Amino acid sequence: MPCDGGFSDVSLYIHFPWCTRKCPYCDFNSHEKKRPIDERRYIDALIRDLDDSLEPIRGRALRSVFLGGGTPSLFSGRSIGRLIADIGERFAPKDNLEITLEANPGTVEHDSFGAYLDAGVNRLSVGVQSFDDSCLRAIGRIHDAQTALSAIGHARCAGFRNLNIDLMFGLPGQSREMAERDCRIALECGPSHVSCYQLTIEPNTLFHRYPPNLPHDDAIMDMQLCIEDILMRSGFSRYEVSAYAQPGMRCRHNLHYWEFGDYLGIGAGAHSKLTLESGVQRSWNTKHPQSYQSAIEQGNPWRHWQPVADTELLFEFMLNALRLREGFSLQHASRRTGLPAETILHTLQDAGGNLLELSPEGIRCTETGYRFIDDILQRLLP
User: Fold this and answer.
1) HEC assignment per residue over the chain
2) Phi and psi of 58, rounded to 5°?
3) Does the CA dihedral 105-110-115-120 come out positive or negative?
C-alpha cells in the first residue's frame, strides 16, 4: 500500500566503518584500523554512492546529516569539509541544516575540532560513555576520563555550542553512585544534549561470547531513575527513551528516525528507509569497507532493496515512534504507514492494555509502558 505524499524531507546518514579498536559491546559495522586510512578514496566512494542513490529522492529537501560510525573523527577536517561541500551541491538543504559528527575522545587532536566546525559540522556528539576510568577499562574504551574532559573542553573552546555527550549505565562494576557521578560531571561540561544508554549484550560481540558481570536489574533501574531525575532537575527534558535535551536542542536527525521519516544511508553497511510510489523500501550496502569501495569503483555498487510488507508497516512505525515521550497523533501514524487511522487505533487497543494511552488526539506510552516498550512491540509483531 503506497503511503501518501507527506515525505518531502529526507535525512542523510553517512557511515565511517573504521575504529581504532573494536569495543567488546559494539555490534555496529566497525572494523579495526590496521593501516592508515585512504581518506580520499573513501570520500570518493561516498560521493559516487550518493550520486548513484539520488534518483528516488531527487527534489526532496535535506533535513539533516549525520556522520556516524565506527569513528568519523578518524578523518581529517579537510576530508569532512570536502564531503559536506559535495553534499551541498546535490541537495536543497532546509534552513539551519543540522550536521552532526560523532567523535571519540581518544581519536581527536585538539585542533581538529576547529577544522570540523569550519567544514560545516554544527553539532558534535562525543562518545564519553563514562568518566570513571575503571568503567572505561571494563568496556574496552581507548580513552580515560581526563582525555574525555580535555576533548570536551577543546570542542567548546573551538566554538561548538550544540554538543551532545554520550553516556552509558549498567556497566560492569558500576554502582548507582558511580552512574550519578558520571551524570553530574557531564552536566559540569555544559552540554546541550545528553544521550544515556543502558549497556546491553548483543549477539556477535565479545561480551556475548564472554559475558561481563553486570549490575542486577533493580540496580540498573535505580541508575536510570537517578539519571533522569538529575537531568530533568537541570533543565533537560527526556523526549526519547535515551535522549535528554535543553529547550530547542533536540536532535533533529534522530527525531526524523523516530517519527518514521525517510533517510538515505551511504557508506559501507549503511541502511536506508525510503517511501516510494511502490511503498516503503529498506536498503543496505555491503558491509566490508574494502568490498564496498571496490564495488563503487568498478561501477557496480551493491545496494540490496527490500520492500516493507503492509503487514509489517505498523510494527516498523511503532518500533520507532513508541520511543517518543510525547507520543504521536493517529493522523501522523496514518500518513507514515498509509494505513487507515481506525485500523491503527483498533490494533493498538488490542495490544496496548495498560501500557498505552489512546485517544483520537494522540497515542503515547503510559509511565509503565515506557519501561516495557518491548512488551508492546511483542504484541504487535506481524
Assistant:
1) CCCCCCCCEEEEEEEECEECCCCCCCCCCCEECCCCCCHHHHHHHHHHHHHHHCHHHCCCEEEEEEEEECCHHHCCHHHHHHHHHHHHCCCEEEEEEEEEEEECCCCCCCCHHHHHHHHCCCEEEEEEECCCHHHHHHCCCCCCHHHHHHHHHHHHHHCCCCEEEEEEECCCCCCHHHHHHHHHHHHHCCCCEEEEEECCCCCCCHHHHCCCCCCCHHHHHHHHHHHHHHHHHCCCEEEECCEEECCCCCCHHHHHHHCCCEEEEECCCCEEEEEECCEEEEEEECCCHHHHHHHHHCCCCCEEEEECCHHHHHHHHHHHHCCECCCECHHHHHHHHCCCHHHHHHHHHHHHHHHEEECCCCEEECHHHHHCHHHHHHHHCC
2) -60, 130
3) positive
Grid cell locating 315: 510494527
Amino acid letter for position 21: R
Q: Prior bond to 70 cis, omega within 30?
A: yes
Q: Residue 62's closest CA among 239, 324, 261?
A: 261
Beta bridge partners of 374: none
Q: How many alpha carbons lie under 13 Å from residue 80 in its C-beta half-sphere?
A: 30
At a CB cut-off of 8 Å and minimum separation 6, what does 5 contact? none
Tens-digit pLDDT string for the chain (382 aa): 334 444 579 999 999 999 999 999 999 999 999 999 999 999 999 999 999 999 999 889 999 999 999 999 999 999 999 999 999 999 987 888 999 999 999 888 778 999 999 999 999 999 999 999 999 999 999 999 999 999 999 999 999 999 999 999 999 999 999 999 999 999 999 999 999 999 999 999 999 999 999 999 999 999 999 999 999 999 999 999 999 999 999 999 999 999 999 999 999 999 999 999 889 999 999 999 999 999 999 988 778 899 999 899 999 999 999 999 999 999 999 999 989 988 998 899 888 788 999 877 789 999 899 888 999 999 888 7
CB 283 within 8 Å of CB 56: no
* Cα Rg, the chain, nearest whole Å: 21
